[in-house]
Every structure is written in structure tokens, then in C-alpha cells.
Amino acid sequence: MKTYLLASFTLLLACCYVGIIGTTFAADPDAGEMEMLVFPENYKPMAVNNGGTISGVVKFEGDKPEMKVLEITKDPKVCGATEKYDESVVVGEDNALKNTIVYLIDITGGKDFDKEAKLEMDQKGCKFTPHVQIVPLETRLTMLNNDRVNHNVHIFSNINTPVNKQQTKNRRRMPLAGVKKAEGPVAVKCDIHGWMSAWIAYVPHPYFAVTNEKGEFTLEDVPAGEYKLGYWHEACGTNSEAPATVTVEAGSTVAQDFTLKLK
Amino acid sequence: MKKLSLFTICLIILIGSWVFLEFVVGGIISVPIPNSVIAMYMGLIVIAILVHISVEDSQFREFLRPIHETLVDDRRRTHRRVLVVLIPLFLLGYTYAIIAQRANPPGSPRDAHPSPPLELTYKDEVIGTMQDVVNPFRHYEKDDPEAFKAHVENGKRVYHQNCFYCHGDHLDGQGHFAPYLQPLPANFQDPGIIPNFQESFFFWRIAKGGPGLPAAGTPWDSAMPIWEDHLTKDEIWDVILFLSEYTGYQFRTFGEAH
Amino acid sequence: MKIRTIAFLLILFGTLAVFSLTYAQNAPEASERGKEVYENSCAHCHGIEGRGDGSAAENLLPKPRDFTRGLYKIRSTEAGQLPTDQDLFDIITVGMPGSSMPEWETALSTEERWQVVAYIKTFYEGFKENENPPKQITLEGKISYAEQSVEIGKELYVELGCVECHGNVGRGDGTSAPTLTDSWGFQTWPANLTQGWNYRGGADTEDIFKRFIGGIAGSPMPAFEGDSFLNFGLTAEESKRLIELENRDEMTEAEEEESGKFYEKMDTAVDIALSIKEGAEMSAAEMQTYNDAMKVVYEKSWHLANYVKSLMPEKRPEPAIGNNVLRSQYVQGTLPAIDDAVWETFEAGYFPLVGQVVIEPRQFNPTIDGVHVKSFYSDTEVAFLFVWDDRTHTTGDEIDEATGKPLEDALAVQFPVKVPQGPTAPKPYFLGGGRLPVYLWHWKASTPEQVTELTAKGINNAEAQEAQGELQVQSTYIDGQYKLWVKRALKTEDKKDLQLEPGVFVPIAFSAWDGSNGDVDTKRTMTSWYTFTLEPVPSSRRFVYPPIIAILSVGLLFGLRAFVQRRNTEDV
Predict the structure, then answer these.
(1) Helix C85-94 vs helix C110-121: angle between axes, to the nearest 10 degrees?
(2) How much is the pLDDT for A19?
(3) Do C557 and B165 touch (CB under 8 A)?
(4) pLDDT, tens only, B56-85
(5) How many angstroms away from the CA of B114 is the closest CA of chain A?
(6) Pair (C215, C342) in one structural domain
(7) Domains of chain B listed by start with CATH number
(8) pLDDT score of B99
(9) Which of B86, C171, C350, C424 is close enough to C480 for a disulfide, judged by CB 3.0 to 4.6 Å?
(10) A176: domain CATH number?
(11) ipTM here
(12) Helix (H, G, I), strand (E, B) or coil at C411
């Protein structure tokens, strides 16, 4: 009995320490705190006839932030030819917010992925393009490198196996094996060029869109019904806790705009 | 079998004793004997041999016989020629080695556990005399085991945030900084350390660190920080509790029978 | 009766054996017992919940491992795989050199270490899900160490891009080195491949091979596994040809076509490799293509491992302690300059540096391993060559926030102003003041041709001497290594200087600063006192006395013979 008490007391004390230290010493800047997408447990592809469309614009609330110029510490000839910016918040005209994922949270059946679509991520001029990439499950993403410098593709997956592969300077294309579990978005980095940053979301269904320069997104061929519409943005977070509700009617378009602010 | 001459026997005894002292005791048993002590032993053996051979005239002559023969006897001409080359050659090499020998630095006279001052202080505050001060939390061991455990646990935290770099995870003085420190950090697992000192002595050494040592402890060599600059009084006492709890050794106490 | 006893004993031991076997294999129980060991011995660094956030973690770099993500650096398994139990057990047993992870062989029993293995596996779900044992890297087909293999490995080292982080000759000084972070966002440095004693997972060729093929999970070190390997699917010759073509500014049409074919071949091989990874069934021909490609990968990897092995000395140099003091060699006439080949002809004194933890601000995570020192002196002057590795060349462009001082690389050499006479005479305090002053040489990377002479009575009480310029200085920074050459007259006019004469044993100590590691002021690496001496010119008497003694001994022998002969005649 006595040892039991002592042990629990020790544990309590130890927990206190962990608590105290935890506040000053965040061990996990990327993985734990990053808000994630929400995926349906099951998704069945089926033919969609006369589906509806969801479209809208994502805007940024507040003053348009100044884009930070990145310091090019390496390979200036290739990487420094054009100025590189921190792309965590890209706001265009009329406060249009680029690189926001807008998606259906609770869809369980709908169209299949476009199998013909080429899935590529370029590393041109030591910058990942696109900055946010949607990757269907069990589909290969091909990394391109026409920079003639060495890159390493480092994908910080937690659920799937993390990837860290060197794409040497003459390796123009390097396909990556498809993954089996929905996850993300996960960070992509090049350790050789520390400023390079992108995001990949491994998704189980095709109702995901990434906003363009004008902040626009479109989800097509959505079976009629009521859906939760979610978004994710690198710096503005998600609305997973209170997603928008949209009702899609066959053959028509429903509009849903979002206004996001920094977390 | 031909009987060995007295001279050969003496030579064998002499060389045998030296080999025994240098290689058997010093090497195999590995209790190295200082050269000066070996020289002393060898001197004693030489005297013993001299006494033995000079007891009787006949014995002395018997001893000298082979030397005589080697020097003058024609049958021993080859021996003589070899020796006349070998002896000077040996002396040549030996004297050369002595003269060309590198000088080595003086050794350190460091006293690892020098006498503490009479008074125990923390910063400038006098705690009491070294002899009488006891760990203020030690009594919890009997009175309030839970409080005691909490103090030990805090001592463990303090230890791992400050001490383990040098004194090691196992408290054996083998922390990751340790191998390249001169002198080596104290090994608390050594049965000769904790049981030989009072907790007040440890408090003094922790609080004042290397720079607080008297000259006999060669303070300029020690990398031990002045912990009173970083730790509170209670933290030092706690860490002392942790040292004895973790190693299982009891600090020395005075007064009560132990 | 006897048989019954034997049978009884057999049954007893049999039951015991079966019982203990099931007991040992019963993972939940083992892990429960492991919990106690873990919380007693490991939690102060790795945290109660295995998140690498124990009370000691704050001041450690590399950080203690966070066990909750299943990322293990030192594995015998392929890229992306979890470690085997044996891998975990081995790391606990031998520790991780160059980090704060000690060996636990002395403190924990074999059983306890296995229990800890069982327990730390409970921190990551993946260990449970994974029913198939992790795939181990095969060590078959090892190519043994040879000059030729090292040469091939050296080429690969450049082609694969190892130089980006590990630098031209492996000192961890690649141009990407300063910006690396681990999977938790903490700064991390690429290994200095020339310091085998700091390799976390051991520096045997097999260890290097495994780290290379399997990657170092959680760190920026990629896995050079099959399909991403340089020109996967091409033979060594084809690969060479492709690199040659790719390195041209312009290709002719024929060359374009040639390289295009190579790329097609690569694509085919990569496609097979990925399909295998994704679990597809392959034909025999496809498997053949894959196996051929993998064979090339493994061969090249062994060459690379051999090259990396060639970069390091067999073991860490011995520190210059005891009688192994730093001895300055006498030369007649001019002392050798910094680039003189004569410096390479003898072993340096090695002075390992440790973090300064005595006075705030302290350095708990030093990045400089040690300084190698050589010295020559002539009748009038002494020259030193100080050599140390530093991954970055930091010259003070950045300002330290806490002190407002520039962060830059630096070295200080310390002597007492007056040499203590005899072993019991006090030396000056290295840190923290005292009565006896020290004489310092302070070199900074921002002024590479200048060494300031200082007189100090404590770490925060150093003053530049009025008379400067008595020192001649040269320095270089090449491939992650500083060389500093300092020359001074043996005797100076300045009373605050140390005066040198042969045969005297002088205390000497060093401090080094790595600006990119935040070193400034007392936050630095240092040594305690060592000993330096101008080795006296061997006395010319050594050529005079020995022959005299030899000749005398010959005379003595003949004299003795004559004496004995005369006595014999008289006796007769």
C-alpha cells in the first residue's frame, strides 16, 4: 500500500514536470499542432449523373500581408535567379487567398478519380510547384527536377511511411510510390535547400480543390444532397469543428465563399 | 647433468628476482612496483648474495672461478671475445639512452578530498559548522516518507538537469563530458566516496565547486561549477538525498550510532 | 528410485523452462516490468510518455528520441521500416557516441534491457500493427576495403550529393549544413565523417552501409534505397555515360537520343521497383531487371561505405595527458610557414574540448570536438599550428541577442604569465578569477591575420595588452577546418608576456568558439590545463660520453685480465 502511494505520488510529480516543461519546450512544431483534413471512413466510387457543382471564393480577412522574401543560402545561380517568397500566406487581388484546400468532409459515395490526370510536383528554381498538392490514394506522384542541382524530397508523413529520397541533379523525374492511408496535409521539404516548402494531402475521394490566385475553387459532379464543406489553410487553419453546410441540387451550382484569418 | 657453478646460480637468482618483481608482480598480478622500490629490493638481494659467497674463503674462490676462467683460460677464448664486444656495446647503448632521455613533466600532487573549511556557507550566509550541519530533509526519511520521496524526486530532476553531463546517468562519473576532463568527475558509485563523507562535505563541494577548493585540491584544474550560483540551498540538499538514494550508499554521520 | 528422482527432476526443470519461456515471451508483462526500469533510468531524458521531453531534454542536442512517432535513427532495416528489437536492444546496450545516450550495459541487466525494449515499443502503435517483421538490409556481397573501391566511392560521394551536407572531404561543412532541422524542427548538424568516434550507430563499414541504405529516420539524411538511387536501372558504365552527357552544356541530337534511352531504361526499372513496393505481382523477367538494378545499388553503396571509412582515423586520438605532453621540436634557422609540408610529418598533440558549464552563459552542446596542436622552435622564435574542425565559417555577421556581441568563430590559447615552479605551486585559475594572471592569445575569424594578446585575471576580467604586434599570424579555413599559425619570439620585452625557454614545462589550455552554435563569451568549448614544453635539443654529450665509457670498459676488462694473469703467475 505504501509503495503504491509513493509510486502514484512520483508519477504525479513527474507529470507535473512534464507539464511545466511542455509549456516552455514544444517538442513538436510540425506534426502535433498542425490541423488536419477530415476523411470519411468509407468511400465508394460510383457513376454520378447530373451532379451539382459547388464553387466559391476564399478571401483573406485583414490587411494583405507583406510576402517575406526568402534568404537563398545555396546554389544562388539556380535558386536565386528569381526572388523566392514565403508562400505560407499568398493573398492576391481583392484579398483572394491562394492555396486553400476546400473539400467535402462527409461524402461517402461519388465519382472516381480522374485516372488520366498527370500528378506532378516540380522543384523548379528550388521552389515546389504547386505549393499544395492533392494526391489520391495508391497513386504515384512524380517529382520533377530540371534544376540541375541536387534536391531531396522529404515528406513528413506520420500515418504513412515518411519519405526522404535524394533526387540527384540529373534525375529529371522521380515517381514516388502510392500510399495506402488517407493523411494530411503533410509537410514536404528539401533539406538541401531549407527554405523549400510544400504540402501534400493523400486523399480517398476526388472532392478536393485547391484555390487559385483568385481564391476560386470548384467541386464538380457532386451527387445531390447536403454536405459539410471544409477548408484547410496552412496559416489560417481549418473549420473542421464548424464546417459550412451546403445543399447541392442536381444540375445546378451552389455558391459558398469563405473568409479566413490567421490563426 | 652438469652441476651449475655458484656464479651461475647467483646470476640466475639475481635475474630471476628482477623478472619476478617487474613482470610477475608488476605485470601478471598487476601491482606495479615503483622503480626505486625495485632497486631497493635488488640491492638487498645483491647484499644477501655477497654475504652468502663471502662466508667462507673456499666458497668465494668457487664463486670467482668462472670469472677467472673467462678472463684467462684459453678454453674460454670465445666467451671472452664475445663479452669484450657485448659489455662495451651494452654500456654504450645504456649511457646513450640515459643522456638522450626525454624529460617528463612533474606529476600533480592533487588531493582529491582536501579538508573542508570549519564553517559551511551558502553564498555568504553561514549555515553552521561543517561538523554539525545535517541535511534538513534527511529526517523525512523516517518522519514523512512521502515528503522524502518528493525531495529525492526533485533531487533527481536537479541532477539530470545539471550534473549528469559529467557525473553520468549511472552516477559513476562517466557522463558524456567526462572522458576529457582532468581530473575526472567524482564517481558516486565508488564505495569509498559517499560513506566517507558527511552530507555537509558534499554540500560544500557542490556549492563552492572547483574554484572553492583549497590549494591542495588544485582548484585551477577542476571543471566543477560553483553551484550556489545556479541552485538553491534546498535543491543542493535534494540532490544530495538523490545521490545516496540512487546509489544505496549512506553518508557518514556523527553522533548517533550507525 | 533413482529413475523416479531423475524423472521428477526432468519434469520439474521442464515445467520451469516452459514456464520461464512463456514468461519471457509474454510481451505485455515484459513491458510492464520495463515501465519501471524505463521510469527509473530513461524517463529523465525521454519523458514519462516517451515524447523525448524529460527534465534533462531541454539542454541536450541531439535531443533525446521521441518514441511516439516510430522514427528510429539506428536501424538494420530498410528505408521506412521500424527497427528490429535487436536494433533497439543494441542501442540501449552500447549507447550513442557523440550524444548524451550512455551505454546501459553496466547499469541494467540483459533482462532489464529487453524489458525496456518491450516498453518503449508501446509508445508507438505502429509496432503493434506491423505483424510482418521489419525487412532487414542484407549485408551479403560486401565489398571489402581496397584502394580501388575507395576511389569509386569517392566519385559516388560527389555524384550522389553527399557533399551538400557532409562537405567536400566529409567534415560536415556542406553548404546545406547550417539550415538542417530534424523531424521535430530542432537544429541538427550533419556528421563530421572524419570523426568516426562520434558516429551515433558505430563506424564499422557495415554500420555506414546500413545508415546509407536505410537512411537515418527523423533526420535530414535520406535513404539511398533502390529506386531513388542515382541512375537506378543503369549499369555502372551506363550511369557514368549519362552523367557525362548531363554535365555538358549542350547535347547533340544523337546525344539527346542516347540520354533519352537511358531515361527510358531508368523509368522501366523504377516502375518495377515501385510496383514491388506497392505489392504488385511481377514477372520473372521484371524481377530479373529489378535484381540486376539492386545489385548495382548495393555494390555502389559498399564502395561509398568504404570511402567514408577511409575518411577517419582508426580511433579517436589520445589526449595529450600524462607524459604525452605537447613538445615543440627544435629546428635550426627559419621556422616552417603555415603551408610547409614539414607540419605533416609528425603527430599533433590532441586536446579534446568540452562545453564550458561553469559560468553563465554555459555551453551544453559543443560542436567543436578538439584542437590538434603542433609546434616548432628555433634559437629565437616559436611557431604553433593549431588545427580544428568547425562546420561553418562564421565571421560575426550575426549578433547574439543576449550579449549584443557578434557571433564568430574564435580560438584562445592560454598560458600562465609566470610558469609555476615545482608541482605544488598553484596555477592560475582557468575560470572565475584568482590572484594569478594568465597570458592569452585570442584569435577571431573576422580578423584572420591577427591575434590579440591579453592579460586576464578571470574570465570576465581580460584586458588587451598595450604592446601588441609581437605575434605573426596566418590562418586558413578550408573544407570545414581551421588552421591557425602563430609565431612569437621566445623572449619579449613585455613583462606581461610569458617568457619561454627550452626544458621548462609550461601549463597550456585552450578555448574555442563556434559562432554558428551560439558560442560567445563564456559560452564556448574549453580544455583544462595541459602541458607544453620546448623539447630541449638533445645534448651533444650523447655522442661523447657513451663511447668514452665503452672504451673505458674495454680497457677495464683488459686491465682485469692482466691483473688476474699476473696474480696467477705469482701464485704459481
Answers:
(1) 120
(2) 36
(3) no
(4) 888 888 888 888 888 888 888 888 889 889
(5) 37
(6) no
(7) 6-100 (no CATH), 119-247 (1.10.760)
(8) 81
(9) C171
(10) 2.60.40.420
(11) 0.84
(12) strand
- A-contacting chains (≥3 CB pairs under 8 Å): B, C
Whether the pLDDT of residue A1 is over 50: the answer is no
From the candidates B85, B165, B247, which should be mutated to test the interface with C, based on the most C CB atoms within 10 A? B165
Based on the domain organization, do C349 and C299 belong to the same domain?
A: no
Q: pTM of the entire structure?
A: 0.84
- Residue C207 pLDDT > 60, yes or no? yes
Contacts of A137 in chain C (CB under 8 A): none
**Residue B232, amino acid:** T
Q: CB–CB of B157 and A6 under 8 A?
A: no
CATH of the domain at C533: 2.60.40.1190
Subunit contact B109:C44, Cβ cutoff 8 A: no
A76 close contact with C: CB closer than 8 A = no
pLDDT for res A8: 46
Which residue's C-alpha cell is 603527430?
Answer: C347
Scanning every residue of chain C, which has its alpha carbon at the shortest distance from the alpha carbon of B213?
C429
C113-153 tens-digit pLDDT = 999 999 999 999 889 876 778 999 999 999 999 999 999 99
Residue numbers in A near B145 (CB within 8 A): 2, 6
Smallest CA–CA distance, residue A14 to chain B, in Å, is 8
